[in-house]
Design the sequence.
Protein backbone atom coordinates (compact mmCIF):
# COMPACT_ATOMS: atom_id res chain seq x y z
CA UNK A 1 0.00 0.00 0.00
CA UNK A 2 2.86 2.39 0.67
CA UNK A 3 3.74 2.38 -3.02
CA UNK A 4 0.30 3.77 -3.77
CA UNK A 5 0.20 6.32 -0.99
CA UNK A 6 3.68 7.63 -0.29
CA UNK A 7 3.94 9.75 2.82
CA UNK A 8 5.24 13.30 2.52
CA UNK A 9 8.99 13.41 3.06
CA UNK A 10 11.60 16.15 3.25
CA UNK A 11 8.96 18.82 3.53
CA UNK A 12 6.99 17.67 0.50
CA UNK A 13 3.48 19.03 0.75
CA UNK A 14 0.39 16.90 0.81
CA UNK A 15 -0.61 18.56 -2.47
CA UNK A 16 2.56 17.27 -4.14
CA UNK A 17 1.88 13.79 -2.79
CA UNK A 18 -1.73 14.02 -3.94
CA UNK A 19 -0.81 14.91 -7.53
CA UNK A 20 1.96 12.33 -7.77
CA UNK A 21 -0.39 9.63 -6.50
CA UNK A 22 -3.15 10.80 -8.83
CA UNK A 23 -0.71 10.46 -11.72
CA UNK A 24 0.24 6.97 -10.57
CA UNK A 25 -3.37 5.79 -10.22
CA UNK A 26 -4.39 7.34 -13.54
CA UNK A 27 -1.54 5.59 -15.33
CA UNK A 28 -2.49 2.31 -13.66
CA UNK A 29 -6.10 2.66 -14.79
CA UNK A 30 -5.07 3.26 -18.39
CA UNK A 31 -2.64 0.34 -18.41
CA UNK A 32 -5.22 -2.06 -16.95
CA UNK A 33 -7.87 -0.88 -19.40
CA UNK A 34 -5.73 -1.48 -22.48
CA UNK A 35 -3.45 -4.31 -21.38
CA UNK A 36 -5.79 -7.04 -22.67
CA UNK A 37 -6.92 -5.20 -25.80
CA UNK A 38 -5.28 -5.65 -29.18
CA UNK A 39 -6.48 -2.28 -30.46
CA UNK A 40 -5.65 -0.46 -27.23
CA UNK A 41 -6.91 3.10 -26.92
CA UNK A 42 -8.48 2.97 -30.39
CA UNK A 43 -11.54 1.44 -28.75
CA UNK A 44 -12.07 4.71 -26.89
CA UNK A 45 -12.50 6.63 -30.16
CA UNK A 46 -14.22 4.01 -32.31
CA UNK A 47 -17.57 4.47 -30.55
CA UNK A 48 -17.80 8.29 -30.91
CA UNK A 49 -16.37 8.05 -34.42
CA UNK A 50 -19.04 5.55 -35.44
CA UNK A 51 -21.74 7.67 -33.80
CA UNK A 52 -20.51 10.75 -35.68
CA UNK A 53 -20.63 8.93 -39.01
CA UNK A 54 -24.16 7.68 -38.28
CA UNK A 55 -25.44 11.15 -37.34
CA UNK A 56 -23.65 12.68 -40.31
CA UNK A 57 -25.35 10.16 -42.62
CA UNK A 58 -28.79 10.71 -41.06
CA UNK A 59 -28.72 14.51 -41.12
CA UNK A 60 -26.91 15.03 -44.43
CA UNK A 61 -27.83 12.04 -46.57
CA UNK A 62 -31.21 10.80 -45.34
CA UNK A 63 -33.21 13.75 -44.03
CA UNK A 64 -30.97 16.44 -45.51
CA UNK A 65 -32.21 18.72 -42.77
CA UNK A 66 -29.73 21.47 -41.93
CA UNK A 67 -28.28 21.18 -38.44
CA UNK A 68 -25.16 22.73 -37.06
CA UNK A 69 -22.56 24.11 -39.45
CA UNK A 70 -20.71 22.67 -42.41
CA UNK A 71 -18.58 20.60 -42.50
CA UNK A 72 -21.05 18.78 -40.29
CA UNK A 73 -18.77 15.87 -39.41
CA UNK A 74 -16.27 18.28 -37.83
CA UNK A 75 -19.12 20.12 -36.11
CA UNK A 76 -20.22 16.81 -34.59
CA UNK A 77 -16.80 15.64 -33.48
CA UNK A 78 -15.89 18.90 -31.72
CA UNK A 79 -18.73 18.28 -29.24
CA UNK A 80 -19.15 14.50 -29.39
CA UNK A 81 -15.60 13.68 -28.29
CA UNK A 82 -15.79 16.01 -25.25
CA UNK A 83 -19.18 14.45 -24.49
CA UNK A 84 -17.58 10.99 -24.42
CA UNK A 85 -15.16 12.29 -21.77
CA UNK A 86 -18.03 13.73 -19.74
CA UNK A 87 -20.38 10.76 -20.11
CA UNK A 88 -17.72 8.11 -19.45
CA UNK A 89 -16.37 9.92 -16.39
CA UNK A 90 -19.70 10.60 -14.69
CA UNK A 91 -20.94 7.09 -15.45
CA UNK A 92 -17.81 5.48 -13.96
CA UNK A 93 -17.85 7.81 -10.96
CA UNK A 94 -21.04 6.16 -9.75
CA UNK A 95 -18.81 3.22 -8.78
CA UNK A 96 -15.71 5.20 -7.79
CA UNK A 97 -15.83 3.84 -4.23
CA UNK A 98 -17.62 0.57 -4.84
CA UNK A 99 -15.09 -0.99 -7.22
CA UNK A 100 -12.06 -0.44 -4.93
CA UNK A 101 -13.60 -0.78 -1.49
CA UNK A 102 -10.50 -2.23 0.23
CA UNK A 103 -8.19 0.45 -1.13
CA UNK A 104 -10.60 3.27 -0.32
CA UNK A 105 -10.89 2.10 3.28
CA UNK A 106 -7.25 1.22 3.93
CA UNK A 107 -5.10 3.68 1.97
CA UNK A 108 -4.32 6.94 3.76
CA UNK A 109 -5.17 9.39 0.99
CA UNK A 110 -7.74 12.12 0.43
CA UNK A 111 -10.68 10.06 -0.82
CA UNK A 112 -11.40 12.59 -3.57
CA UNK A 113 -8.50 11.04 -5.47
CA UNK A 114 -10.71 8.04 -6.31
CA UNK A 115 -13.06 10.44 -8.09
CA UNK A 116 -10.46 12.60 -9.79
CA UNK A 117 -8.46 9.66 -11.13
CA UNK A 118 -11.47 8.72 -13.29
CA UNK A 119 -11.77 12.28 -14.59
CA UNK A 120 -8.04 12.34 -15.36
CA UNK A 121 -7.95 8.96 -17.11
CA UNK A 122 -10.95 9.77 -19.29
CA UNK A 123 -9.45 13.21 -19.96
CA UNK A 124 -6.26 11.65 -21.28
CA UNK A 125 -8.33 9.44 -23.56
CA UNK A 126 -10.06 12.58 -24.83
CA UNK A 127 -6.73 14.28 -25.56
CA UNK A 128 -5.58 11.18 -27.44
CA UNK A 129 -8.71 11.41 -29.60
CA UNK A 130 -8.07 15.02 -30.69
CA UNK A 131 -6.04 13.92 -33.77
CA UNK A 132 -9.25 12.39 -35.12
CA UNK A 133 -10.80 15.86 -35.28
CA UNK A 134 -7.72 17.24 -37.03
CA UNK A 135 -7.77 14.46 -39.63
CA UNK A 136 -11.44 14.99 -40.46
CA UNK A 137 -10.94 18.76 -40.51
CA UNK A 138 -8.16 18.38 -43.09
CA UNK A 139 -10.24 16.10 -45.32
CA UNK A 140 -13.37 18.26 -44.97
CA UNK A 141 -11.52 21.51 -45.56
CA UNK A 142 -12.38 23.08 -42.21
CA UNK A 143 -10.34 26.17 -41.40
CA UNK A 144 -8.66 26.44 -38.01
CA UNK A 145 -9.48 29.64 -36.16
CA UNK A 146 -7.20 31.42 -33.71
CA UNK A 147 -9.92 30.66 -31.15
CA UNK A 148 -8.26 27.23 -30.91
CA UNK A 149 -6.12 28.79 -28.16
CA UNK A 150 -9.26 28.71 -25.99
CA UNK A 151 -9.39 24.91 -25.95
CA UNK A 152 -7.33 24.67 -22.71
CA UNK A 153 -9.96 26.86 -21.03
CA UNK A 154 -12.66 24.46 -22.20
CA UNK A 155 -10.65 21.51 -20.87
CA UNK A 156 -10.21 23.12 -17.44
CA UNK A 157 -13.90 24.03 -17.26
CA UNK A 158 -14.96 20.53 -18.25
CA UNK A 159 -12.56 18.92 -15.80
CA UNK A 160 -13.93 21.08 -12.99
CA UNK A 161 -17.52 20.24 -13.97
CA UNK A 162 -16.82 16.50 -14.04
CA UNK A 163 -14.98 16.65 -10.73
CA UNK A 164 -17.81 18.60 -9.09
CA UNK A 165 -20.47 16.16 -10.27
CA UNK A 166 -18.31 13.21 -9.25
CA UNK A 167 -17.84 14.57 -5.73
CA UNK A 168 -21.63 14.63 -5.42
CA UNK A 169 -22.52 11.37 -7.13
CA UNK A 170 -19.74 9.05 -5.88
CA UNK A 171 -20.58 9.25 -2.14
CA UNK A 172 -24.35 9.39 -2.61
CA UNK A 173 -24.40 6.18 -4.65
CA UNK A 174 -22.99 4.36 -1.61
CA UNK A 175 -26.20 5.24 0.27
CA UNK A 176 -28.64 5.14 -2.64
CA UNK A 177 -27.66 2.38 -5.06
CA UNK A 178 -30.50 3.24 -7.44
CA UNK A 179 -28.73 6.54 -8.09
CA UNK A 180 -26.27 4.66 -10.32
CA UNK A 181 -29.01 3.69 -12.78
CA UNK A 182 -30.70 7.07 -12.42
CA UNK A 183 -27.44 8.83 -13.32
CA UNK A 184 -27.06 6.80 -16.50
CA UNK A 185 -30.66 7.58 -17.44
CA UNK A 186 -30.08 11.31 -16.89
CA UNK A 187 -26.92 11.13 -19.00
CA UNK A 188 -28.88 9.56 -21.84
CA UNK A 189 -31.41 12.39 -21.74
CA UNK A 190 -28.68 15.02 -21.34
CA UNK A 191 -27.03 13.86 -24.56
CA UNK A 192 -30.04 14.98 -26.59
CA UNK A 193 -30.60 18.04 -24.40
CA UNK A 194 -27.07 19.30 -25.08
CA UNK A 195 -25.91 21.03 -28.29
CA UNK A 196 -24.02 18.05 -29.71
CA UNK A 197 -25.82 16.94 -32.87
CA UNK A 198 -27.15 20.49 -33.26
CA UNK A 199 -26.13 24.00 -32.32
CA UNK A 200 -27.84 26.35 -29.88
CA UNK A 201 -28.95 28.47 -32.84
CA UNK A 202 -30.82 25.45 -34.25
CA UNK A 203 -33.11 25.28 -31.21
CA UNK A 204 -36.63 26.73 -31.36
CA UNK A 205 -37.01 30.02 -29.54
CA UNK A 206 -38.79 28.50 -26.52
CA UNK A 207 -35.91 26.03 -25.96
CA UNK A 208 -32.96 28.41 -26.32
CA UNK A 209 -33.17 29.75 -22.73
CA UNK A 210 -32.82 26.16 -21.46
CA UNK A 211 -29.43 25.87 -23.16
CA UNK A 212 -28.12 28.62 -20.89
CA UNK A 213 -28.71 26.43 -17.83
CA UNK A 214 -26.67 23.59 -19.33
CA UNK A 215 -22.98 24.19 -18.48
CA UNK A 216 -21.97 21.97 -21.40
CA UNK A 217 -23.34 24.57 -23.82
CA UNK A 218 -20.62 27.09 -23.00
CA UNK A 219 -17.94 24.41 -22.95
CA UNK A 220 -18.92 23.06 -26.37
CA UNK A 221 -18.99 26.56 -27.82
CA UNK A 222 -15.35 26.99 -26.79
CA UNK A 223 -14.35 23.72 -28.45
CA UNK A 224 -16.29 24.46 -31.63
CA UNK A 225 -14.88 27.96 -31.93
CA UNK A 226 -11.62 26.31 -33.06
CA UNK A 227 -13.24 25.70 -36.46
CA UNK A 228 -16.51 27.65 -36.22
CA UNK A 229 -15.84 31.10 -34.69
CA UNK A 230 -19.52 32.03 -34.95
CA UNK A 231 -20.32 29.31 -32.40
CA UNK A 232 -18.47 31.15 -29.63
CA UNK A 233 -20.90 32.76 -27.21
CA UNK A 234 -19.03 34.58 -24.46
CA UNK A 235 -22.10 35.34 -22.29
CA UNK A 236 -23.02 31.63 -22.40
CA UNK A 237 -19.44 30.69 -21.50
CA UNK A 238 -19.63 33.08 -18.55
CA UNK A 239 -22.90 31.57 -17.32
CA UNK A 240 -21.43 28.08 -17.72
CA UNK A 241 -18.39 29.11 -15.67
CA UNK A 242 -20.60 30.37 -12.83
CA UNK A 243 -22.70 27.17 -12.86
CA UNK A 244 -19.57 25.00 -12.90
CA UNK A 245 -18.09 26.92 -9.95
CA UNK A 246 -21.35 26.42 -8.03
CA UNK A 247 -21.43 22.68 -8.83
CA UNK A 248 -17.80 22.28 -7.78
CA UNK A 249 -18.42 24.12 -4.50
CA UNK A 250 -21.51 22.02 -3.77
CA UNK A 251 -19.54 18.90 -4.64
CA UNK A 252 -16.76 19.77 -2.18
CA UNK A 253 -19.27 20.47 0.61
CA UNK A 254 -21.29 17.29 -0.04
CA UNK A 255 -18.12 15.22 -0.20
CA UNK A 256 -16.65 16.60 3.03
CA UNK A 257 -19.87 16.07 4.95
CA UNK A 258 -20.54 12.57 3.67
CA UNK A 259 -17.14 10.89 3.33
CA UNK A 260 -16.93 9.84 6.99
CA UNK A 261 -20.27 8.05 6.81
CA UNK A 262 -19.31 6.60 3.41
CA UNK A 263 -16.25 4.90 4.91
CA UNK A 264 -18.43 3.34 7.61
CA UNK A 265 -20.95 2.18 5.03
CA UNK A 266 -18.42 0.51 2.72
Sequence:
Amino acid sequence: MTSIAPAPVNGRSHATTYWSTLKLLTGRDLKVRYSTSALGYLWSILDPLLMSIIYWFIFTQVFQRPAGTQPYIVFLLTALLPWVWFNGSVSDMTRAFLRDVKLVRSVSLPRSIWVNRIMAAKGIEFLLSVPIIIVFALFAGAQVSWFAVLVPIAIVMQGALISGIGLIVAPLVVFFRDLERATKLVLRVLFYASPIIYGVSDLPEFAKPLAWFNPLSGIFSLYRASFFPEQLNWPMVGVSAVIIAAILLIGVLVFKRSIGTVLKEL
User: Anything to note?
Assistant: Residues 41-265 form one domain.
